[in-house]
Amino acid sequence: MEQFDYVVLGASHAGLEALRAIRAHDSDGSIAVLDREARLPVSPTVLPYVVSGKRRQDRIALRERGWFDDLRVDYRQQAHAAALDSAHSRLRLADGSEIGYGKLLLATGAAPAVPPIAGLSDVRFHVLRTLDDALALREAGRSAGRAVVLGAGLVGMHAAENLARAGARVTIIEMRDQVLPGYFDATAAARIQAAFHDNGVEVLTGRRVASVAPRAGGCTVQLDGGEPCDANLLLVAAGVRPEVSYLAGSGVTVERGVVVDAFMRSTAANVWAAGDVVQTPSFFGDATPAGGILPDAVEQGRTAGMSMAGDPGVRAYPGGVSLNTYGFFGRRALSVGRDAPQQGGADWEVLVRGGEGSDAYLKIVLRDGRLQGVFGVDVLFDPGIMWELILRRVELGARAKALLENPQDAARALMSGLWR
């Protein structure tokens, strides 16, 4: 059985950042990176642009093989984890081989969630999580006269736009009462939905799919109200679930994902986890959804890698703060942080610019004078700086109105003072 000081299971953002952090502190330890894909690692966030043709598939790798070689890392592709024996610090792969580790990082990400819809398994449908998925969807979209997209999250909305641009008649079906739930507030979502309507995309919110049945050249999607939607192409974009199938009986606690502490340590000795595979708390200490975004994956990976290597500079992961940028039909929407609760008290304040009939829209959410969230459509601001202002719990006070009027310059001025 081969033995390594460190084994990193997964090679997307979290795994790569952890690898960089490990090697920055430990220049000599042996490291193996096990990637289940046959291709070089890519980010799921770039896949919609592969579908649209805006990005070439040969120019989207997060790292080239030479990068791993330079770090003296044993990088292995098509290495599928089958089982983890944390009691004996070894990992069994799908080919039957075993690898021992001193410290292990679980960064296996997530897989598409397939809802339990009657008949769905009997028809051909697409998902979008890997490069192969993107290439298959792009090819199918070239000849799809009628497309149905199940789910109005970022993946579903991106794909629907690309399919519409390719000439398909597209219907989006979302069971919640707005598009992009969990990403944007209701007003921003309504503006985005209106743009899709104006570009010929039908959007059905607050609707569920009762069943799916095959038909010549495609399938029929039956809605809960009885209406059928025929489709030549069906895309299931109903979210993702953590990839934890190999952890049964491992000693690693899994709830909505792998349970970790503030240093990304799992409940099993010498096992860490980071990225979409983990269940992490919200930065706000409430039920606000956390995780699932690129900046969080990078931060978690850095924290895990530093912790694994014993780097004294490691800091506790502060918790998840959502950050989303979304381009649609030549327009742009941004969201950072959380919205105000419906029954918020006097400590909450909501500032809004852009009412009915205005193209640009911006909402700033404060609690006790500190930024909690920013939501905008066609308003220019740097989401990364807003993210930092939230994480640093910056007291805005009277500067909140300046932030509303000119979010780009006001936020930069605030951060400039903090960085000095």
From TrEMBL:
Pfam families documented for this protein: Pyr_redox_2 (PF07992)
A molecular function GO annotation: oxidoreductase activity
Top-rank taxon: Bacteria
Family designation: Belongs to the FAD-dependent oxidoreductase family.
InterPro entries: FAD-bd_OxRdtase, FAD/NAD-bd_sf, FAD/NAD-binding_dom, PadH
Species whose genome carries this gene: Aromatoleum tolulyticum
Official protein name in the record: Phenylglyoxylate dehydrogenase epsilon subunit
Domain FAD/NAD(P)-binding: 4-283
Cofactor(s) for this UniProt protein: FAD
UniProt keyword terms in alphabetical order: FAD, Flavoprotein
